[in-house]
Each structure stands twice: as C-alpha cells, then as structure tokens.
Amino acid sequence: MGSQERRAIIELPVKVILTEVGTTFFINNRKNLKKFKLADNVEEYGILLDKFTPSSLQRMMLIDYVSKIEISTSEFLTIRQEVMDIAKLITYSMLYRQYDSYIFQRVLSSDVIKNWNRKNAANIIDEKTKINDNFLQNALKTKQKDIAEIKQAILAPMYAFISKNSTLLAEEKNVQLLLSEKFLNNLRPFTWFIITKFKDSEGYDILIKDVRTSLAEYMEKAKVAEFVALNIMELVTNAENSNLKREAKSIFKGAVDMNAVLFDPNIRRQVMDSLQRKGELVSISWKIGSRGSSIGTQGKLQITIFNKESQYEKMKEQIDQKKSADLKKKSLMDFYKELPDGESNTELGLYYLSYLSEACEKVNVKFESLVNQISGSDLTVITLAINF
C-alpha cells in the first residue's frame, strides 16, 4: 500500500478492458478503443495504459469502467514492484467499492431513514431515489465543515488504536491511517448527503457507530491485499523460471547450468530475448465483478495466471471443448505439494498460500484456488477466486 501511494507514475503496459459503461464513456468522448487478444484467446475492446498514475486506474475501477486488467510479459522480475503495486491497488479498489455498497445499504436500513420514510411517504429515500448531481454537489459544498467533523468523529478511535499499536512501524502506521481515510473518502456523495441531513436526528449516533464498526472490519479485510500480491508474484516467478529453464535446454542443448540461466545476467537475457521473440509470455488477468452484477458476484475478484507457451492455442481448444479425460483440476495447495524438488520454491509458495487462506478465513472473505492442467503438456492455468 505504501509504495502504491508513493509511486506517482507507473510505467508498464497494462491492458484495461472496459465495461459497457466505460466503453460508452470513451466512445462519447471520441477516444479510440483498441481490440486486444487476451491470454484466454478472447478478443475484447479496451485501452492500453503504458504510463499512468495509480489514482487514474483506481478511479476507473471505482466508477465501474473496468471489467478486466491484464499484464503480459516474458519477465516479471524487473517489474516486480510495479506488479505488486497494481495487485494491491486492485484489491483495495474492490474493498473500497464493497465498503461503499455495504454502508449505503446500512444507511438505507437505519432507523434514521425508516423514521423519515414513515413521515414522508411521498418522498421516501431508498435505492431508487434519484437526485440531481449538481444539486448534490452544491449541497455537499455547504456541508464541508460538517462532513470533516463527522469523518473525524468516525476516525478518532481508529487513529488512537493505530497510534498505540506497538507492532507497527511508523511508516506502517501512516499507511493504515491513510487507508482508513480512503475508505471514508470513497463513500458515494449521496451517503454523505443523507448522513449530514440527519445529523441531529434520532438514531444518528447508532448510524455513525455502525459506519465506524464496519470500517474496522474492512480495515481487517484490507490485510488480505499484501498476501494476494505476494501470491501473484510467487506464481508468475515460478512460471517465468519454468519457461527460462525449458528454453535454455532448447538453446544450449543441456550444455549450460540451470542456475546460470536464472542468475547469470548475460545468459538470462539471451534466453529471455528468445522467449520474447516466440511470444511465449506469462500473463496475469484480473477479472472484476461489476457493480451491476447479480447479488453475490459484485465483490468477486478472479485472478488468473496463464503460462502462454508455443502449444497454447491447441491446449486452449482442448480446455474449451472440456475434454474431461485430458483436463485435471486440483487445488493450488496440492499443486505446490506435488511439484518436484527444484521445480520451484515450493516452501515459499505454500507459505504465501497458507497465509492468504488463513487471512481470508479470519475476515470472512471467500477464497478458492484452482489449477487446471492439460495432461501431457506444461501449460498451467492458475485461478485465485476472492469474494469480498
């Protein structure tokens, strides 16, 4: 989180596939869309970001413009920090959206709104309530002082808890403080309009307590982000090393030490260049649940690692045809345990995976990991499914 917030610009080619809302916006603003062939062989329209601010990508996610994000390269080692930053940014964005939706529902079901609706049957406040954007923005401008005071009242106990936490370094405390503020800052304007409108009403204190309690819960959920990023890097590093070794055997006919392939810069570069020319890439794809999705899928984040090799098209067809005799599914935990010695840093993979599973379980986040393997091939399609 800290590095994500500090990094002003990310320089990395990222394919951003748009939702219908996002596509409509870009077309209406005369922005040219690109047609991408993604790692799963599907063609979709979107935009290519090769130099961007983290906040710009996050804004697009928060307003539901993004359906998928994909990064493809033959070498992840040199862009490790950028990938980690993007991975955490995506997870945080999902959590901000979920917190916003949760709080909006809690506000609508609060005693404050129930009392209002009983007394104002002709002007009830519910999910279908429409409010003019200009009116809303102007109304909130006049309430800026109230909003600042309310945020302070919500955050004060959180600030005190974080400041007294002796297990956190000073930088980690700052990150936590910033994160708590961002959860509140990303609540929709209509939520703040309602909260300020009923500031002195009966039941207001209970509502604010509810906002504060749920903020603490989502701050706990946010701890998952670091483990997600570490797991992703572990998986793509393993895939990258596997490709390096395989290509080195082909180039040098076994006349080079495998450690030299991984650690000798000159040999590594030669092998990497060969992989790049052949288009044998490793891809990370994030599929993001839309706000317009059915209940239960809005908070779903699906992360898929594709190891795209020379026989990929043939194997993709086999997957599509669902030839069950050729398709073997297992959990990622089983996959790690079955890897031969020296194939990857199995202990590290198991360590990250077990911590991610445990972290998700503690905060009631559903997590599942699967590996699809085609018999007789080296292709692995690894999926991490997280439902916030």
What's the overall average pLDDT, rounded? 86
Proportion of residues in helical segments: 55-70%
Helix-strand makeup class: alpha+beta
The count of β-strands is 9
- What percentage of amino acids are in beta strands? 15-25%
Number of helices: 16
End-to-end C-alpha gap: 18 Å
General shape: elongated
Q: What is the ordering of alpha helices and beta strands?
A: HEHEEHEHHHHHHHHHHEEHEHHEE
- Enumerate the strands of the largest sheet in spatial order, edge to edge or round the barrel: 2-3-1-4-5-6-9-8-7
Regions with pLDDT < 50 over 5+ consecutive residues?
1-5, 310-316, 318-327
Largest sheet: 9 strands, antiparallel
> How many whole angstroms does the radius of gyration measure?
24 Å
What report would you give on this structure?
With 388 residues, the chain is α+β, with helices and mostly antiparallel strands. It contains 16 helices and nine strands. It has helices at residues 2-6, 20-28, 54-62, 80-108, 111-119, 133-142, 144-163, 170-185, 189-197, 204-221, 224-252, 258-263, 265-278, 312-320, 332-338, 346-362, and strands at residues 10-18, 34-37, 43-52, 66-73, 282-288, 300-307, 327-331, 366-374, 380-387. It has a nine-stranded antiparallel sheet, sandwiched between helices. Strand 2 and strand 3 (43-52) form a beta hairpin. Helix 7 (144-163) crosses helix 10 and helix 15 runs antiparallel to helix 16 (346-362). The chain is elongated, with a radius of gyration of 24 Å. The protein starts with a helix and ends with a strand.
